[in-house]
Amino acid sequence: MYVSVKSLQMFTILTFCIVGISLIPSLLVFTYNIIEPFTNSVIALAKETQFSGHIPFEPYTTYGYWQVHANSISARGGIISLVTILSVVTGLPIYTVCLMPLPGIMSVILAYLIGRRLGARLTGVVFAVIMGFSTFHVLTETSIGYQSYGNLLQLIIIFIIVLCYIDRGKWSRSDVLVVSLLFWACSQAYYTAEFLTIAIFLSITLFSFKNHSKYDTNAFKVMSYFTLLGVIIFLGFDFITYVFMRNMSIGVLANALVNYFSYLISLITRESTATLGPSRPYTNPLIKYLDMTFNVLNWMVIVVCVSLYLKNVRKTTKSHARLTRKENSANILAFSLLFAFGTRLLIYGLLGKIAIGWIYVPIITIILAQTWFVTRKHNLIKYIMPLLIVVITLLSFSLTWTETISIVGVDYYHKVNPCASWIANIINSGSLVSSNQISAQIFGVVAELGKANSISVNEFGSDVGNLNNTSNLYNVLVTRGYSYLILAKMFENQPIYGGFWGPYLQPLGDKLESFDNYIYFSRIYDDGMLMVHKIGRK
After folding, report:
1. What does each C-alpha distance from 15 to 33, 112, 524 come to in angstroms?
2. How many CA atoms are closer than 13 Å to the CA of 480, on its beta-carbon side?
């Protein structure tokens, strides 16, 4: 008895250590002053809120990429209020508040708790490692932004579903109330998280309706309420629905589908036929093969488990007759997340983007493997698969960390702020353009200094490729109406991102210095890190 207690204590300590280690990447993001570029729009709106005393709706009348983006999320009062209140209560600058790694830390802890409720401690540890060491997820979901906050609320809702629907097997009124409030908060943060949460509600509702047990009937009633509530909030109160209906047409939809499939073809043929290029470069060939292996392993297991599920449906009069209540509920959650993945794929597909990478895909894989690989010959897969996913995740993190942080940007606040302050104080009006990360940081400063309605701030977007062709670059920039071109010294040895999701341009190398030799670009500012070129004949 003494040995078993001692072993349990050792396992508890080991679990605590692994979960603690999984928090290190989030702490590194905080240490390196990394903030997702889109969070600068939240910072700008929070500053406008402090100035005016209320949350402004579409405060920017000047047309620019970042002004448009900030206007589009100005209806998300939840995240703007949260950041503003935290800044006032703590006395910290808004930027410092957004830098706090609370979403990243809470995501790892919640992932462990979800895994622990679904299976054993090992499952919880695996979920924590996946959430903590998935490089791109950590870089974009650690600081306090509208996307990370919305996704965190979605994860909390999933945890409550696991707790009530799978583990306890019952819902209380307080559980229903908490989920309802969390969903409303989610709708005030991030529309994608809101929409995918509705997809999860709807999928669980449909699966519960198909089964005939007393428990599934109760679950059907609760999840039907959540689905109805979500649809009402999304269609009735979400501004994005109005924007979508206003801008959508058959022509726009057809163009989006053409662009989507042309991008698929370009991935297969390796030809750049799509409007949007790859989201990031593979400087290490091993990274590409790791990504491919990771996706193949996950989807092989998912396809096999779906096949076993369909085979089970055909063999029995009740679709989950050989599963326990908890296994059946876990299986329903996994299929609901899979349905949400398909919804997510469709949303980004309409925007011309391939979004096969989602943090929940390996979690879906592990849940399904634990549910369906129950025979002795399958037991090896059941336990080896999570370990394989962990190994690939850790190896990928070690190879991609340094490379991937260049996408989001290390300490752009201190690198860009001197130039951004100069722009806001010296330039009265005009339109400027730079990379995704630099232009985002400039916008935050320009908005803080009250110049966001006179200085248009833009990212390169698909025009980034023209930096290699300066003669054509001038014509493109003039056509776009840009007055100033902002270049960075780091462009010599780091990829240049036209947009957060791409396309990117390989480092310019010695070409960066050649901009001074062209009559259409005049360098009017240089602090050793950033350079401002006025566009026009010298």
Report:
1. 29, 10, 56
2. 29
Q: What is the pTM of this model?
A: 0.88
Summary mean pLDDT of the chain: 83
Interval 269-301: pLDDT, tens:
444 333 334 455 556 677 778 888 888 888 898
pLDDT digits over 129-143, tens only?
999 998 888 888 889
Burial 133-144 (b: 16+ CB within 10 A, else e): bbbbbbbbbbbb
**Mean per-residue pLDDT, 247-253:** 57
Residue 482: inside a domain, yes or no? yes
The answer to whether residue 147 sits within a structural domain is no
Chain center to CA of 123: 23
Beta bridge partners, 486, equal 532
Q: What's the CA gap between 323 and 373, in Å, rounded? A: 12
Treating both helix axes as pointing N-terminal to C-terminal, what angle do 24-31 and 2-22 enclose, rounded to 10 degrees? 30
Q: How many CB atoms lie within 10 A of CB 231?
A: 13
Distance CA 246, CA 70 (A): 19
172, containing H or E segment: none
Bridge partner residues of 397 (DSSP)? none
Give the residue carrying structure tokens 């605590």: 16
Exposed e or buried b for every residue in 327-339, given b needs 16+ CB within 10 A?
bbbbbbbbbbbbb
CB count within 10 Å of CB 474 equals 19
- The residue whose two tokens read 């993001």 is 29
In a domain, 123, yes or no: no
Cα separation of 123 and 66, whole Å?
41
State which H helix or E strand residue 268 sits in: helix 250-269
260: in domain: no
Query: What does each C-alpha distance from 246 to 57, 75, 241, 321 come to in angstroms?
Result: 18, 16, 8, 47
Q: Distance between CA atoms of 300 and 72, rounded to whole angstroms?
A: 39
* Sequence-separated (6 or more) residues with CB below 8 Å from residue 166: 117, 118, 326, 329, 330, 333
Tokens of 255: 């163009």
User: Which residues form the domain of 440?
Assistant: 412-535
Report the number of distinct structural domains present in the chain.
Answer: 1
Alpha helices in 270-322 (DSSP H): 285-315
- Angle at which helix 102-118 crosses helix 146-161, to 10 degrees, equals 20
Instruction: Judge contact between 368 and 382, C-beta under 8 A.
Output: no
Q: Are 515 and 523 in contact (CB under 8 A)?
A: yes
